[in-house]
Each structure stands twice: as structure tokens, then as C-alpha cells.
Write a structure and sequence with these properties.
By secondary structure, the protein is mostly beta strands. It is built from 6 helices and 34 strands. It starts with 5 loop residues before the first strand and ends with a strand.
């Protein structure tokens, strides 16, 4: 076994033996990367040289470099990321540098944590850009792309299949593929992320990009092309915009659900892990959401909402000029969410009046996989846990003109934690409680229809949805809504449907429309410093709207 070298230090009256760092191995970049998903020299202290291809120290905390013609092995990458967070250093794109440091691999990104960086002037040759053409098969594509990780690459003309999200990443497919959208479960290896960390690419569904050159990076199994500050692309806008709803007919009763995505006020509440926007940011956020509800959703009579911090915030939203024609009144009751987010409801007070409202917590033997662990007593006397961080909100309403009654249950089931099995156990327990709650409501008022809506964090074919609709009392009609596969959210370029409106079976003959209204998912997040008019997007979620003919 090799022993660490030690440095002998003499001090008056003392003899100290200090460890000395092992000498760095001088290697080529391709030898560091190797041909597999994990770098061959992970953990080793190395010294290597290359040409700086992109300086992203201001945005990503490092720069990329590449060694031209590193070896004859096409399976080994010739590029690498150099992390300079601990030692920022000026570098010049196109110059050759020598870097010493330790090899790391964080979520798939191979890097050298720089201890020293020496620059030796411009590189006299030229760097070839690899024109990417991954196969459709996901496993084959992963192996193909791994060989070009951290290298300078270019893309063929491509179409945006998922708009820029809040991380600044959009997702593209080769235009020649003919694919215009991808859905949960799709595994097309040709899908690539696209981002410009030093700026912000506001790309919407269907936009065409060409002349794209950047660095191919990997993070958590996802590959994307990072465009350096000095690079640009050619963009042709699709011109897509959400249709304006206009005024909804008084011959229908409109009910919708809308996840408003982290609607916090500027007050830092003690005991909560709440975000604290500036007053200007808060005002802008209220304005964007109000415009979305009025212009694109048509001021529904009943609007169940999720991710709202408190009743005062919902009242501030109702007071926005764009929403005043609906005369909304707000209903919200505090839950136990660590961030302080709750479910709530707005109703048109000129058409409906509030009979009652209550939050329905439940005690369960199912232990939450995250969030607060609050003990409670089960019916048999044993100890359980409070099941909902955001308890279902039961709102009983009545029409002012014909006195038709309706009960709406607003939900936001357990958020993803990374442990899908544990999450599903909690969501199934929550779904069972909501189904029992509906049975209770129907037992007490058999002639009053019940609508269950919200961000259920569960998909149309999932166990929680199956449990909610298992008795036939609640019907999920959106999956029958036409040829287009429904969606209300997108993650990593894949569209999915976590937002639902489940209809009382007695209401099915009166359903005139039930669909996700695509006002957000297909449009770019405008970025942290963009003006509101830069994009119609007001949330990561699309609302889902139900129109009922009136008796």
C-alpha cells in the first residue's frame, strides 16, 4: 500500500510531520473521461491541457476546455468542465490552458476542481465542432452523447417541443424527426435541452432554431447544449399565442382549477420556509396571474387554486383590476405546509353565494415520506399522522338566480419528493380520504353534485386517480376529450397531466366542455428580469376548465 508523502518541518523544540498532496498525474482529457458514464480517473489529482471553448464562470462557476485530436477512440470525450468556484481565474476563449486539480462527477457532469490554471497563449489550430445526430433509441443515444460530453457541438435545424422553463431550459427535436411534442413515457433519445446560462432563451412551442453551436453537458441523465456568451443562433418564431377567452356565456356555469405556482407575498412569516418577493415582484406576479385568469380563462364562476400563501394573498389577487368584473370573493384556510402554501377558491359573488366552507384534515396510519410529522389519534385509539399538508377545502355554493347547489372540493395532493413509491403510498391514502369525503357529502345532500378538482400530482392512469374514481361516483372525462393527448404541465421536455377536474356522475350529461386551457406550458418562462409582456406564461401549470350547461 502506498503511504502518503510527509513533509518534515523543524520548529524550536518540535518535530512536525505534515502530509503532502500526492503529485498530480499528467494525463490527457480523453484519458480522464474514459469511455463510460463515470470518468475513469474519478477522484484522481491530475494535470491536463486543452483549449478554452467557453467561459461560464459568471453563470456556472467554471469554464470548458477541449483537447483537439485527443485520441483515436471515438467513445472517449475530448472535453471537460473546469470548476473554478473556489479559485476564479481569468481565461480567454481560444487560448490553451493547463489545469491541475481533482476529478469529480456531480450528477453526471465530469469536472476538474481547479487548484491552478496556467494560460499559454492562443491555440494555433482550429477546433472542429461535432454535428450531433443521436439515434432515437434512448440507451443508444445516451452512449452516443456520452462520447461528446463537454465538447463543442452543433445541432441540425430543430423545433422546440417544450418551451423554456423556470430553469432557463427549453427542449428541442431535429426538425427532420417530424416530432412536435413529447409526452410522459416517451423516450426519444434525440430530445436535447437548450440553454444560455449567460442570458435567457425565451423559446416557445414550435419555434425553429438553427445554427446552434454550444457545449454538450450532462446533468442527472439529461443532456443539453449550453450556448456560450459569444455564440448566437438563428430563431424563427412560430407565432403561437393562447386564444383569448372573451366573456363566458351566462348559459353555462364555469368551474376551473389553476395551480398558481408559489404565490407568496413580501412578508417573511416566522416559522415558515416561505419565499419573500420584493413588493414590485409581488405586484407583477399578481398582475400576470390576474391577466391570465381574465384574458385566457374567461373569469370562471368558480376557480379552485393551489400554491397560494394565505387568504390575504388570494384577496389581493381578487382585487386586481383585471378580475374586478367577476366580483370574486376568496376562501382559504391555513394548512401545515412547511412553505406556508395552501389551496383556496374564488367565486363570482354576483352569481353565487357561499353556503359554507371547511378544511378537512385526516389522520392516517400512513407515514408521510416528507413534510411535517404531526401525530394524531386514529379511530381505534392508536397513533397516526396528519395526512394532508394542504387539507382539502370543501366549499358549498348556491346560485343566486335558480338556487342550484354545488359542492367543490379543492385539492393539492402530495408533491413529488424523489421517492415515487413512498409518494404514491401517501397519495393513494389521500385519494381514499377524498373519496370517503365525497361519499359523506353525498350521503348528507344526495341531490347536491360534487366536483373534485386540483393539482393531484397524479396522472390520468395512476393509482390515486383510479382510487378516486373507483366507485363511479366521480368521473374523469378529460381523457375522453378528443384526439389530442391532454396535458397541463411539462417536465424535462415531456408533457403530462397532474391537474384534474373530476365530475359527479350526475353532472356528466351537462358537461359542455372539459379541457386544459393551454396558456402557460407552451410558452416561454420570460426569465427573472423580463417585462410581463414578454410572455403570456403566468405559471408552470395550465388551468383546467369545466363548462356545465345550466338546468
Amino acid at each position: 500500500m502506498r503511504r502518503a508523502a510527509r513533509l518534515l518541518v523543524l520548529l524550536p523544540g518540535f518535530l512536525l510531520l505534515l502530509p503532502v498532496a500526492a503529485p498530480a498525474q499528467t494525463v490527457r482529457i480523453c484519458a480522464i473521461q474514459g469511455s463510460g458514464p463515470t470518468p475513469d480517473m474519478l477522484g484522481s489529482r491530475v494535470s491536463t491541457s486543452g483549449v478554452v471553448t467557453a467561459d461560464l464562470q459568471a453563470s456556472l462557476g467554471g469554464f470548458f476546455m477541449q483537447e483537439p485530436g485527443c485520441d483515436a477512440d471515438a467513445s472517449t470525450s475530448d472535453g471537460i468542465f473546469v470548476s473554478t468556484l473556489a479559485r476564479p481565474t481569468p481565461v480567454t476563449v481560444g487560448n490553451r490552458v493547463t489545469v491541475t486539480g481533482r476529478v469529480t462527477n456531480d450528477a453526471g457532469l465530469t469536472a476538474i476542481e481547479a487548484e491552478s490554471v496556467g494560460e499559454s497563449g492562443p491555440y494555433a489550430g482550429s477546433l472542429e465542432t461535432v454535428r450531433l445526430s443521436p439515434p432515437a433509441d434512448a440507451l443508444a443515444a445516451a452512449a452516443y452523447l456520452e462520447a461528446y460530453e463537454d465538447m463543442l457541438v452543433s445541432l441540425p435545424p430543430s423545433r422546440v417541443v417544450a418551451a423554456t422553463d423556470r430553469t432557463g431550459t427549453s427542449y428541442v427535436m431535429p426538425e427532420s424527426s417530424g416530432v412536435t411534442r413529447l409526452y410522459r413515457g416517451d423516450t426519444d433519445g434525440r430530445k436535447l435541452g437548450l440553454a444560455a446560462p449567460a442570458g435567457w432563451l425565451t423559446l416557445s412551442q414550435g419555434d425553429r432554431v438553427s445554427d446552434v453551436t454550444g457545449i454538450l453537458v450532462e446533468s442527472s441523465g439529461q443532456f443539453k447544449v449550453v450556448i456560450p456568451p459569444a455564440r448566437s443562433l438563428t430563431l424563427e418564431r412560430s407565432g403561437l399565442m393562447p386564444p383569448e377567452a372573451g366573456s363566458l356565456s351566462t348559459a353555462t356555469l364555469s368551474v376551473a382549477t389553476y395551480d398558481l405556482e408559489s404565490l407568496f407575498d413580501p412578508v417573511d412569516d416566522p416559522g415558515k420556509d416561505d419565499a419573500v418577493p420584493t413588493p414590485d415582484q409581488y405586484a407583477a406576479g399578481l398582475g400576470r396571474r390576474a391577466t391570465s385568469i381574465a384574458r385566457y380563462l374567461g373569469l370562471p364562476d368558480v376557480l379552485g387554486v393551489q400554491q397560494v400563501e394565505k387568504i390575504e394573498v388570494l384577496q389581493d389577487l381578487a382585487a386586481q383590476p383585471a378580475l374586478l368584473p367577476a366580483s370574486y370573493r376568496a376562501v382559504l384556510m391555513e394548512g401545515i405546509d412547511p412553505r406556508g402554501l395552501d389551496v383556496g377558491l374564488l367565486y363570482n359573488s354576483e352569481r353565487l353565494w357561499l353556503r359554507s366552507a371547511e378544511a378537512r384534515q385526516a389522520c392516517s396510519a400512513v407515514r408521510p415520506s416528507d413534510g411535517p410529522l404531526i401525530s394524531c389519534a386514529l379511530s381505534g385509539g392508536s397513533s397516526g399522522y396528519m395526512l394532508f399538508t394542504r387539507p382539502p377545502l370543501v366549499v358549498r355554493l348556491e346560485a343566486l338566480d335558480n338556487h342550484e347547489r354545488l359542492t367543490v372540493v379543492v385539492n393539492h395532493l402530495k408533491s413529488p419528493s424523489g421517492d415515487t413509491a413512498a409518494d404514491d403510498r401517501v397519495r393513494v391514502a389521500q385519494a381514499d380520504e377524498v373519496r370517503s369525503l365525497v361519499d359523506e357529502l353525498k350521503a348528507s345532500e344526495a341531490d347536491v353534485p360534487v366536483i373534485v378538482l386540483g393539482d393531484l400530482n397524479a396522472f390520468e392512469d395512476s393509482a390515486p386517480l383510479q382510487h378516486l374514481t373507483s366507485t363511479g361516483r366521480l368521473v374523469n372525462l378529460i381523457v375522453r376529450a378528443g384526439a389530442e393527448r391532454p396535458y397541463s404541465h411539462a417536465v424535462q421536455g415531456l408533457c403530462e397531466l397532474p391537474d384534474h377536474v373530476l365530475v359527479d356522475g350526475a353532472l356528466v350529461p351537462r358537461v359542455a366542455e372539459l379541457r386544459a386551457v393551454h396558456v402557460n406550458v407552451d410558452f416561454a418562462d420570460p426569465g427573472p428580469s423580463a417585462p410581463p409582456e414578454a410572455s403570456p406564461r403566468a405559471s408552470e401549470h395550465d388551468p383546467v376548465r369545466l363548462l356545465l350547461t345550466r338546468p
